[in-house]
Amino acid sequence: MPNIKSAIKRVKVNQKANAANTQVKSAMRTTVKKAENAVAAKAENAQELLQAAYKSLDKAASKGLIHKNAAARKKSRLAKKA
User: Fold this and answer.
1) Burial class (CB in 10 A: 0-12, 13-18, 19+), 56
2) Which among 19, 36, 53, 81 is least buried, having the fewest CB atoms inside 10 angstroms?
């Protein structure tokens, strides 16, 4: 544990940011997985789940959690499956 006040604060801020980033990234993976499963099963709500997956991918890319080209690639591959 750091002794300097600013270093202590950086640790706290980094932990908070890490938790937020983990939550967004986990939600992104979940929505993408749900969309892939719905498309594979030819579910009725597959289109809605695809839109949710696109939204979560864009959100993760805008926050810098994944590269914008990676988000575009994943969206393209989802669209191809659908």
Assistant:
1) buried
2) 19
